[in-house]
């Protein structure tokens, strides 16, 4: 990427023009408002290929006779400073002068066929892409912004100054082809915290558990919060916290395969009667039985619960994930089972079950694995929803041994493109991060 400071350009201009001002055009107004380009689309603006300065801008900068005739004190105040390549500034309009640092976040073409809207994505911050010394202690000055100056709702799942911090950001859209981008602004000691988790997760989400609470293994008093604000809290029973060194997003819960689980009052979790999506991110560490359950609701023994029988579980016999979902119809108990196989125990996988009113689909890591015909309505939960075991603990040994990181329930039947993008995001493979940039050439270079 070619980046020039204004001082270098002025030197080139003086050399080429023999000190004459030339006809390079009007001097940019250093005090002009930094409004977005009127041609920018309402949604996210396509990123420049390669993540750098647009080619046209580089071409203009390279031609001495195209440089403006201006004294140094009249040049724009967003400058390149003498610093390593990870702390450069580009001449894009600056959103708010009160925030002195920013980071460009690129979303390369995700290879989807649908235009997605209101999409939560995971942003991972670390010392390679932000200067923690310029951030408030708990990240209160984080602001995520589109190219056309629309602020984006965000939720900090885990904050670790000097380490990895995990933030969920709701994008207004993701185009079906081409790159896009948005921005993180920070470095404002006066900014107030504007997190809005319930807005991040308001797009048909009924419950979202990040499971990053730092509860002690073996305890029974911990609470696992529902990020949607719908109040579907989980109760700890002998599960315990593990950090991101395990591959978790800010932290996960460990289940011992013997007697640990999280219980959630199922009543009210589901308010949709014909569509649903369940997403679980988990890692199997052991096989204490033939079908350890990461998520389960309903009871295999109770026919009164036939319409609310759901499971996400590991199959010991074929080393893969399986899902079962039952709707009220004449198909009989226990409903179709979709299965995967040939997976590696110990890896993190994203398992997604989708019911669209006429069929039931299983995805693993964004890839569609199996489809079963299924129809009928879904009843609201009247039993306990359990993570890490079967809710009817006396029926069969279904204890889960491993880590569960993220669990989501949505009242919408998510598309294959949505499932694909969410899998990339949960595996931290969706976004690229540009260089650190500063407003006035005064940013700290070192974290």
From TrEMBL:
Pfam families assigned: DUF2341, Laminin_G_3
Instruction: State the superkingdom.
Output: Bacteria
Where does the DUF2341 domain start and stop, copy by copy? 139-200
- Could you tell me which residues belong to the region Disordered? 20-55
Family annotation (SUPFAM superfamilies): Concanavalin A-like lectins/glucanases (SSF49899)
Low complexity bias (residue ranges): 27-55
Q: What is this protein called?
A: DUF2341 domain-containing protein
């Amino acid at each position: 990427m070619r980046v020039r400071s204004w001082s270098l350009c002025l030197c080139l201009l003086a050399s080429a023009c023999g000190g004459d001002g030339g006809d390079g055009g009007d001097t940019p107004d250093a005090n002009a408002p930094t409004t977005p380009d009127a041609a920018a689309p309402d949604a996210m603006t396509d990123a420049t290929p390669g993540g750098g300065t647009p080619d046209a801008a580089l071409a203009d900068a390279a031609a001495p006779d195209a440089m403006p005739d201006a004294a140094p004190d009249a040049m724009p105040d967003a400058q390149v400073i003498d610093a390593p390549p990870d702390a450069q500034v580009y001449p894009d309009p600056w959103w708010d002068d009160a925030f002195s640092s920013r980071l460009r976040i690129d979303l390369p073409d995700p290879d989807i066929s649908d235009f997605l809207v209101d999409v939560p994505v995971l942003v991972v911050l670390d010392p390679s892409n932000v200067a923690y010394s310029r951030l408030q202690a708990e990240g209160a000055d984080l602001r995520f912004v589109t190219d056309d100056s629309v602020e984006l709702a965000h939720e900090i799942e885990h904050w670790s100054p000097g380490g990895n911090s995990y933030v969920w950001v709701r994008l207004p859209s993701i185009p079906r082809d081409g790159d896009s981008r948005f921005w993180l602004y920070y470095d404002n000691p006066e900014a107030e915290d504007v997190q809005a988790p319930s807005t991040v997760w308001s797009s048909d989400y009924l419950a979202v558990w990040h499971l990053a609470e730092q509860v002690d293994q073996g305890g029974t008093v911990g609470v696992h919060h529902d990020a949607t604000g719908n109040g579907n809290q989980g109760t700890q029973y002998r599960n315990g916290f593990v950090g991101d060194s395990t591959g978790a997003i800010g932290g996960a819960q460990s289940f011992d395969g013997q007697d640990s689980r999280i219980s959630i009052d199922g009543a009210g979790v589901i308010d949709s009667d014909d569509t649903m999506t369940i997403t679980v991110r988990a890692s199997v560490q052991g096989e204490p039985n033939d079908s350890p359950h990461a998520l389960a609701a309903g009871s295999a023994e109770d026919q009164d619960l036939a319409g609310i029988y759901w499971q996400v579980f590991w199959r010991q016999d074929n080393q893969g994930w399986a899902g079962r979902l039952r709707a009220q119809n004449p198909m009989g108990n226990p409903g179709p089972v979709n299965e995967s196989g040939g997976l590696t125990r110990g890896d993190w996988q994203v398992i997604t079950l989708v019911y669209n009113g006429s069929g039931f689909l299983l995805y693993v890591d964004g890839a569609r694995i199996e489809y079963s015909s299924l129809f009928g309505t879904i009843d609201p939960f009247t039993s306990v929803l359990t993570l890490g075991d079967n809710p009817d603990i006396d029926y069969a040994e279904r204890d889960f041994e491993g880590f569960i990181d993220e669990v989501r329930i949505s009242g919408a039947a998510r598309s294959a493109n949505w499932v694909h993008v969410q899998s990339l995001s949960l595996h931290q493979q969706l976004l690229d991060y540009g260089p650190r940039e500063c407003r006035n050439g005064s940013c700290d270079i070192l974290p």
